[in-house]
UniProtKB/TrEMBL annotation:
A Pfam entry, by short name: Hydrolase_like
Keywords recorded for this protein, A-Z: Hydrolase, Magnesium, Metal-binding
Keyword Hydrolase: yes
NCBIfam families membership: HAD-SF-IA-v1, HAD-SF-IIA, HAD-SF-IIA-hyp2
Gene Ontology MF terms in the entry: hydrolase activity
UniProt name for this protein: Acid sugar phosphatase
Amino acid sequence: MKRTEAFLLDLDGTLYRGTEVIPDAPDFLRWLIETDRKYLFVTNNSSRRPEQVAEHLRRFGIPAEAEHVLTPSMVAAQYIKEQGAGNRVYVIGEEGLRSALIEAGCEITDEQPDYVVQGIDRQFTYEKLMTASLRIQSGAIYLATNVDKALPTEKGLMPGAGSLLAAVATASGCQPIVMGKPEARMIDHALEMLGVPKERAIVVGDNLETDILAGVNAGVRTALVLSGFSKRDHVAETDGKPTIIVDSLSDLIRLVE
Ligand SMILES: [Mg+2]
């Protein structure tokens, strides 16, 4: 575990839990900064702009800047740019997705789009579903930011981007190309941003099915932190096995220092 240069950090369940900071998260970030490690906050949340994600973290006392944030909206924007197959996009999504696409030079339109890009959209309607389905049937390429079915809240599980994905995929008869974790694409993108080879990086997260599987899919080491969603007993039942399991971020420091 020595010589770990780059840390790809999950947010909810790893650095904070809902509205509460995880006690050693601010110190963990300070340790990364003091020891000159490279790091990125790698989130599956497409709704916020990087600056909003950083601001959210700073409210928990966690040092964070927009340049250290990677969202699946940014990965989608980059994907469209690289493909060179047009830049007209029909969007089902919120501010974070729209702004990432516009910054990458995409034109947001519901007329003859080259892509339908879908993330979480808390203003989702039948009309949006219909438009997405019709445009995909006419040949637009369907991209989804992430497959998370539900978002845990104090009230219970709220529908996530994956629930809207199920509607669009069912209506159009087409499965999307997915940008976020557990796809390797998100981790590859993060390593490219940091300029670090796979062997020097580690994915840190609380969810076996998204964070850890993303690392496994990308061939990067992983640390499961038992501060959130996945528990030690879940490890035996999943495909993506973590390289290490730690109770806390302080334990992780001891293993990589
Ligand atoms: Mg998490």
